[in-house]
Amino acid sequence: MKEVKEPSRKSWIYYYAIVMVIIILLNAFVFPLFSGVRVHDTDYGTFMTMIEKGDIGRVEIQSNQILFTDKAEKSVYRTGPVSDPTLAQRLHDAGAVFAGEIVTQSSPILSFIMSWIFPIALFALLGQFFSKKLSRMMKDSGGSMAFGMGNSGAKVYVPSSSGISFDDVAGEDEAKELLSEIVDFLHDPKKYREIGAKLPKGALLVGPPGTGKTLLAKAVAGEAEVPFFSISGSEFVEMFVGRGAAKVRDLFKQANEKAPCIVFIDEIDTIGKKRDGSMGGNDEREQTLNQLLTEMDGFDGSKGVVVLAATNRPDSLDPALLRPGRFDRRIPVELPDLKGRVDILKVHASKIKTEDNIDFEPIARVAAGASGAELANIVNEAALRAVRDGRQKATATDLMESVEVVIAGYQKKSRVLSDEEKKTVAYHEIGHALVAAMQTHSAPVQKITIIPRTSGALGYTLQVDEGDKFLMDKNELLDKIATFAGGRAAEELVFGVATTGASNDIEQATKLARAMVSRFGMTEEFGMVALETVSNQYLGGDASLACSPETQTAMDKKVMEIIAAQHQKAIDILRANMDKLHELSSFLYEKETITGEEFMEILNN
Ligand code: ADP
Ligand code: MG
Ligand code: ZN
Which ligand is closest to the CA of 348, given by its number? Predict the structure, then answer.
């Protein structure tokens, strides 16, 4: 189900305008035809002729017109008055009856129908036609109708056949399981009520950006055939104090009326931040949060209102929001593992044209650490690449190349390195690869390239683990730092001078070494003490210091020691394999991109 905005105000204005025009036209032209006996306009001459023939039934002389009928009183005629003093006498002679009124009105029932029932029916018909057309338009644009609801601004979705279901969400099996229980409850609450079980009032989806939290919530909407109110936390934030709270109130009022239903608050951290006295506080936000807390207490869970919320900053949420009775169920939506990545790639690849029998596993393996959104992007990049090359279908190569695009940016053809620079980059990358290959705890090298990328990388070495890695031991971390140092070490050994090319390596090596000391407790000096704490684990994980300045100084020293040792180890490894370093580097310099197999072949020769 795609998100669809409420039908635009414009279309309703059109609707009213069209109805008004039609009614005016009907009143002017059509109703007169029905609303009475037809009146024939005639000239005065005809009138006189009819008088002479005595063919006049009833006649009524008004100041601005003369109405008359024929003898049989079948038709009514009208003519303009002419100054004719003998008219009355002649009419009398012709046997006309001076009627008080000639009925130009039809029966009162008919006129009632015409002037009341007919327009109302017309309104209703047009309205129906319009809403049908609108909903078809909505469907065409790929989703179901969503109406703007009251003041809350929440969109309510009606599940439609084209909606998103759990099948569209690959991996995330645990999250799906927890959510399908909620769906099941909404379908058959009796089953739960009989045993006395209460379902959680609220469930909080937490996880890094792009892992499919919003997607999962929409899938719940598609699966549970109940109304689904969707609103983003930021929509509660208003310029005027009190408006946010009013919106919350409104939202829950509607939800209670429509129960059983689901309320989904995306990015709830916008309003759910911890309330703290500092910084002057934010009255508006706190009021909104308080209202939310009150409302979540207020509604009866057994009635079938389930509140879903999503956030990637669970640690910043107010504890009151997380206590039992509110968002008491926490549903982690983590980065996908290898199998999850394969499944996500498959789901998205099925939406584009690909060659048959693509093996997604190697692609998923290279894309370690990628989120669902990134994988979706990778598939789309592959399709774009196929189009760019004028092909009908995306291939496995397209996918593999797109992974690199997402990791390292596009190939930068315009950047021309000088010969000397290119040589330096070749040695640098082989330095990484060689150090990695000579250590036992390093992931195998998959690809080495010295084609510059738009991300600024002049080259890179792709190392890919065999499977998923959930734990890393101290040796692996140290080897990793040594591998990072390998690039710089090669430059120093061959050219005897450092370049700027290693800045990113240095940054990453330092981060690792620091974490080993301050968070992983991997040094004897500091032991198992947390010297730093991580906040925002899903958003980069900033570490903040939790130790005295003296300890920090000692810690910095230890970090330097670790890196220096690994740098030395890299130099030693390369020095022992100097001929291989030269051979591999000139091979890479020639070919610009080499595979892991080519690399190993030369190495083992
Ligand atoms: P967030 O967790 O930040 O809310 P979204 O749910 O908005 O992430 O995901 C963004 C996009 O990434 C989705 O529209 C979908 O295309 C893709 N995506 C993310 N996770 C998955 C998944 N598990 N399966 C399939 N597609 C996914
Ligand atoms: Mg989201
Ligand atoms: Zn490097």
Answer: 1
| Cα angle value 235/236/239 (rounded, 5°) | 95
CA of 484 to the centre of ligand 3 (A): 6
Strand partners, 538: none
Q: Which of 98, 119, 137 is the last residue of a domain?
A: 98
Locate 569 and state its tokens.
């180890």
Q: How far does residue 508's CA lie from ligand 1's centre (Å)?
A: 28
Which residues lie closer than 8 Å to 369 by C-beta, 6 or more apart? 335
Three-state secondary structure call for residue 262: strand
Task: Give the relative orientation of helices 596-604 and 419-438 as an angle to the nearest 10 degrees.
Answer: 70
Output the six-digit token pair for 166.
């759990």
Number of domains in the chain: 4
What is the pLDDT, as a whole number, of residue 152? Answer: 58
Q: Tens digit of pLDDT for each residue in 26-44?
A: 777 766 665 556 678 888 8
Average pLDDT for 293-308? 79
CATH number at residue 44: 3.30.720.210
Mean pLDDT over each residue of the chain, to the nearest integer: 83
Q: Which residue has the CA at smallest separation from atom 25 of ligand 1?
A: 169
User: 345 or 223, which is more confident?
Assistant: 345
Pocket test for ligand 1, best of 211, 218, 232 (most atoms within 8 A of CB): 211
Ligand 2 centroid to residue 310 C-alpha, Å: 7
| Annotated catalytic residue within 172, 284, 429, 492 | 429
Q: What is the pLDDT of residues 341-374, one digit of tens each?
A: 999 999 999 999 999 889 999 899 888 888 999 9
Pick the last residue of a domain from 286, 315, 332: 332
Active site residue 429: yes
Helix/strand/coil percent split, the chain, to 5: 55, 15, 35
Residue among 369, 402, 406 at smallest CA distance from 208: 369
Clarify whether residues 348 and 295 are in a common domain: no
Same domain, 579 and 446: yes
Q: Which residues contact 70 (CB under 8 A, 6 or more apart)?
A: 50, 55, 56, 57, 77
Q: Residue 10 has what pLDDT? A: 62
Name the phi and psi angles at 448, rounded to 5: -130, 135
325 and 185 assigned to the same domain: yes
Give a three-class secondary structure readout of 297-350. HHCCHHHCEEEEEEECCHHHECHHHHCCCCCCEEEECCCCCHHHHHHHHHHHHC
Q: Are 366 and 464 in contact (CB under 8 A)?
A: yes
Give percent of the chain above pLDDT 90: 33
Q: What is the pLDDT of residue 156?
A: 62
Strands 39-41 and 76-79 turn out to be parallel
pLDDT tens by residue, 501-552 = 899 999 999 999 999 999 999 999 999 998 988 887 787 777 888 889 999 9
State the residue range of the domain holding 356. Answer: 338-407
The count of other CB atoms within 10 Å of the CB of residue 521 is: 14
